[in-house]
Write a structure and sequence with these properties.
303 residues, TATA-Binding Protein, Endonuclease III, domain 1, 2 domains, 13% strand, disordered C terminus
Length: 303
Amino acid sequence: MKTFALELPANYRLHDVLAFHSRDTESVAEEVSATRLRKGMLINGVPVVLDIALAPTSASCKVDADGKLSKSAQQRVREAALSILGLRIDPEPFCAFAAKDDMFGPLTLAQPGLRIVQSATVFEALTWAIIGQQINLSFAISLRRTFILQAGRQHSSGLWCYPEAADAVKLSIDDLTSRKFSRAKAETLLRLANLVASGDLRLDVSPTNSIEQISAALLAVKGIGPWTVNYGLLRGYGYADCSLHGDVAIRAALQQLLGEDVKPDMPRTEQILARYAPHRTMAAAHLWASLHPPGDQQDEDSP
């Protein structure tokens, strides 16, 4: 059992973090209270619960593993904590960039300290993005819970651990479709899991595997489109320049800010967001927050 501490920045919006991780009221893989967050995950096949005690300026993180963790696995748990707490992207560069912008200047002033909260692992982020394609949030949460209970494993504490690709590949299409997954969604989910588990699709960023290469490899997977890739980059990697121009809520927020009668189409939305590169992820965060409570995932607006 290991313990480490993380410093929380000034203006840290703890309520955003708690809201994102408490979206599943049945709490099969997460337990959230006002001062504590417990997250179950599988790390290299070992069930792990990351228990985070939250104070105003710091987070004390305790690792409870049902097995021995290698040094690389311990580092993955630490990386998961940074993601869970939304500490990967510093919001201040975008605030400075947009300070004099007519559209985003007022938004950043109204939402100081807004951050991108992430999933614990890249695989979790990508599977969540696939699960959430073209359905409402409550149904997506229900399917996510089913996926965890079918493919995940239970930690000795009783909390369920979000599956890794090696666990997901043990499922069949029928396992998922019998539990309200569409066939297309089930096929895409298992296709991704098989590619990752076999090593044909590498999700780790390295000098020989850049974000751009990972994005291209993901786009080549049948059933995964630009929205899913960008959402996965945002929630999985904390990538700072994701363009969510295909997201219906992003377009609705722009419609509201522009004072127009209809939502801008995707090409125009892409052009608008391009003005805010290399900070488009934070631009998306502020647009989402202008319309929705923290923690909401939006539906994909593509076929």
